[in-house]
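User: New here, please read:
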Amino acid sequence: MSKVEDFLTAAEEKDIIKAIKTAENNTSGEIRVHIEKVTEKPPMERALEVFYFLEMDKTNQRNGVLFYIAVESKKFAIIGDEGINSRVPDNFWDTEKELVLSHFTKGNPSKGLQLAIIEVGNKLKEFFPYKSNDTNELSDEISKG
């Protein structure tokens, strides 16, 4: 299971996209998942590059969250924009990262991602509740590099 194509089944991808849609249903926050084959860079550094490449820093309230995975490099990071980063507890991202990694080691990355996406969505809802004029600013699809 080292190729990007083999990391998640089509059904698992749909389940993750469904989790993103569910999480974003109650918040103006935006959640993305990006999967690529390898990176030579530290995961947070590469995640930040992808974050800017996907224009996640351009959300109205700066409340985008990226789940970044480099499959063959076995690297993973979660990065939040300044709007959400300034509000969550210091250990919040580490807690979510551990949740995901615990499922990665059990061979069920989809489950870990779904659970963490829902938890991040709940935190986003707490600080950035949905308003009737909110629009989905970023795609819910999984991006691949």
User: Anything to note?
Assistant: Strands lie at 30-36, 64-70, 75-80, 143-144. The mean pLDDT is 91.
